[in-house]
């Protein structure tokens, strides 16, 4: 059954698309007509191509099921000429099931970070209860010259849930792109961003700042350029289920200021990264950098992550850190990036999980590497021999079983070259095995020893 949708054209109310005439009253009148003729729901406000000058905020009253639609992302431009004013402000809780699409929302003058209400789409509490806003979509829009593009008043306990932000572009922002952080905290069940581009040049705060959600999904979101000093590019906090799929950050400069900072941080959150890339990240300041940080009671699972950074003033850079590291596979860390912070390796590291392969060794001394087969067998000995365990690339869980399969009257010494220094000698005239496990990067422990018949 087709929806009976009322369509309102803003130009019928006096809006002029030339960019010189103040269209504020025309938009306000069109919105009022949309509500009355749409019988509260299923109305559509159409904004033809052109530049529309406004000088005040446009308040969206309580409605459901409505759509505000431009001609195209670059064709329809609504430009705010008054500093520190939203473009569209939602002020009545439970306004839901709406869409804003196909337009550019920007400011005539670039807004500084002090203008904290200069957000094209701004959620506030102007009337009613603080129940929040839900089930809405922001689609195919560009946000420019603002403080944040989409912003929830951070000083009010409002929630936004069932949020879908798709195919949007953010650029020339002084704060960031999206900030949905209620204060005091209140639950926000579902928030997702898909196919979005965030140009971070000029941002002084977090590009993405989201909190207190059941589920957050970022799918194919790209962050490009920008400089962040002591502040992460993205923070998603206190969320039960966070998934980043095919997301990318590139050409972002960090400055640790001699301290510790992160590029993406997930405190008190459970996060899964799938097919993500963090590349060409220059780092200044000489401090400690975590590209992905799920510390502070965070949980992290990685299924595909490529990292590449450059230390310009010393310090260290680590691809991932977590208080509870569940699993990792296909995690690539180009030097000088290390894969894990000390003590934070995953319970299961698929990349470094050894296969039960066997290498037969000739009658010679051997020094192993971390990439060698788990089982090392000596079938013949014509002299006392030594096999030395790896001293580089060692990780917790790495394991080797040394097999003396000859009763020749010579010894086979397993040399632990690390500080643990747990050497074991398989005696002459016997067949024997010993298994060593690494408990850390600097410690080998013999966990089993057997004489064979």
TrEMBL record:
Q: What Pfam families would the database entry show?
A: Beta_helix, Pect-lyase_RHGA_epim
Residues in domain Right handed beta helix?
A: 134-285
User: Which SUPFAM superfamilies is this protein grouped with?
Assistant: Pectin lyase-like
Q: What is this protein called?
A: Pectate lyase-like protein
What GO molecular function annotations does the UniProt record carry, in alphabetical order? lyase activity
Ranges in coiled-coil conformation: none
Residue intervals of the Rhamnogalacturonase A/B/Epimerase-like pectate lyase domain: 8-85
Determine if Lyase is one of this entry's keywords.
Answer: yes
